[in-house]
Design goal:
binds arginine; 4% strand; mainly alpha; Ribonucleotide Reductase Protein R1, domain 1; two-stranded antiparallel ribbon; 3 domains; two-stranded parallel ribbon; 467 residues; Fumarase C, Chain A, domain 2
Length: 467
């Protein structure tokens, strides 16, 4: 057991207590952030005259060596240390001697761990946004190819009005666009450095917190040292953003599972993204879509866990906060994998456009347009609604569609119908006449596609300015 705080203790820590308390098994993930933060702290200590130039050089070189050795597998982060901070300091002191013991001057593990987590989350926010962006690129190219692919749109999972595949996919594009901008908000709001807050009350050493903040790419230092060590809002916000991404993915998965079902057959998931059954030879199951939908639960769970952990904590640091790590690491990984796999599934999926079109034709999705046709001929809308209702009933009995009735049959229900009804209720007309901004008509969609393309081209995660 290697601890940083044996001095005032007369007994060895109980083994179970030690293990319950230790965080090395998971905070080892933060070793690069810990070293990056320590280098900035030490460079600042020298600038402020707290360390000599030789001490600083030895520490920086030692820390860089530890990073290199861990990355290249020559140095193992073992459970003999309590946490990642103890590991780095112990190995440093072993390697460079007394100078290593000076690294922690003017610092506490409280501001150290707050910094490590901020650096880690900041990187993850950027990576998550890029992963969502990657999926959006795929969506956009599918949209560009399917402006004239007609399909039924649904409400209550009942066929409602015709739309296009581009329009349907475009709804998800908008959701992911909000996800990307939500992550940008989080990045900007969280990007202040807690380093130098000490245990919670700052320190008597003349630290330059503006300097360390700028060395580490932060906007500036946080402004209250109590809040600095006890703020985990950015983790909660990040988990909230991840939970929302999963909610979007899960809805999309649900639709793909329905579309891929034997009844719908709108899509066929590629063999590489499907699995078979151990007993039913004919089966090809949409497991990836189901798993992404299923994993939504654990990401929501992470958000609930941290919200609950933070609730009721008095200021400032409390050990409860150590619980912020495992679930957050897991959620970040889960969302990244889900986005990557989902993108792969989507880009290899076969869209059965003829089946979609046939389904739109058969489901009375043109009933609203048929009513609008009558309105165009002077029939009040409420009456037109009633007439088309009768027509639908008639079609249901005859197992046919409005556009397949003869003019005589139509006229028997309302004399207002003329030969131009057929063009008025064709799928193409129904969709193409919908030209309000955001509607599926080709012209309206083309303008939207231009804006969506522009959003991706200028997406914040591609800029260097925030890094
Ligand atoms: N492992 C701790 C955590 O993750 C580091 C901070 C420990 N600070 C303390 N005062 N015990 O929160």
């Amino acid at each position: 057991m290697a601890q940083l705080w044996g001095g005032r203790f007369t007994k060895e820590t109980d083994d179970l207590v030690y293990r319950f308390n230790a965080s090395i098994t998971f905070d080892r993930k933060l070793f690069e952030q810990d070293i990056e933060g320590s280098i900035a702290h030490c460079v600042m200590l020298e600038k402020q005259g707290i360390l000599t130039c030789e001490e600083k050089d030895a520490i920086v070189k030692g820390l860089a060596g530890i990073r290199q050795d861990v990355l290249e597998g020559r140095l193992a982060i073992t459970e003999q240390y309590e946490d990642i901070h103890s590991f780095v300091e112990a190995v440093l002191t072993e390697r460079i001697g007394d100078a290593g013991k000076k690294l922690h001057t003017g610092r506490s593990r409280n501001d150290q761990v707050a910094l490590d987590m901020k650096l880690y989350i900041r990187g993850q926010v950027l990576e998550s946004a890029a992963c969502v962006g990657n999926l959006m690129e795929t969506l956009l190219s599918l949209m560009e190819k399917n402006l004239d692919t007609y399909m039924p749109g649904f409400t209550h999972l009942q066929k409602a009005q015709p739309t296009t595949l581009a329009h349907h996919l475009g709804a998800y594009f908008e959701m992911f666009k909000r996800d990307v901008s939500r992550l940008e908000d989080i990045y900007r709001r969280m990007n202040y450095s807690p380093l130098g807050a000490g245990a919670f009350a700052g320190t008597t050493y003349p630290l330059d917190r503006y300097y360390t903040a700028s060395l580490l790419g932060f906007e500036g230092p946080t402004l209250n040292s109590m809040d600095s060590v006890s703020d985990r809002d950015y983790i909660i916000e990040y988990l909230g953003a991840l939970a929302t991404i999963m909610m979007h993915l899960s809805r999309f998965c649900e639709e793909i599972i329905i579309w891929n079902s034997n009844e719908y057959r709108f899509v066929e998931i590629d063999d590489a993204f499907s699995t078979g059954s151990s007993i039913m030879p004919q089966k090809k199951n949409p497991d990836i879509a189901e798993l992404v939908r299923g994993k939504t639960g654990r990401v929501y769970g992470a958000l609930m866990a941290i919200l609950t952990t933070m609730k009721g904590l008095p200021l400032a640091y409390n050990k409860d906060m150590q619980e912020d790590k495992e679930v957050t690491f897991d959620a970040a990984r889960t969302v990244k994998d889900s986005l990557t796999l989902f993108e792969g599934m989507l880009s290899t999926m076969k869209f059965r456009t003829e089946v979609m079109e046939e389904s739109a034709m058969k489901g009375f999705t043109n009933a609203t347009d048929a009513a609008d046709y009558l309105v165009g001929k002077g029939v009040p809308f409420r009456d037109a609604h009633g007439i088309i209702g009768e027509l639908v009933l008639y079609c249901l009995e005859k197992n046919t569609g409005i556009d397949r009735l003869t003019l005589e049959e139509l006229k028997a229900i309302s004399p207002v119908f003329e030969a131009d009804i057929y063009d008025a209720v064709s799928l193409k007309t129904c969709v193409e006449k919908r030209l309000t901004v955001g509607a599926p008509g080709r012209q309206a969609m083309e303008e939207v596609l231009r804006l969506e393309r522009e959003f991706l081209a200028k997406a914040w995660y591609k800029e260097n300015s925030l890094r």
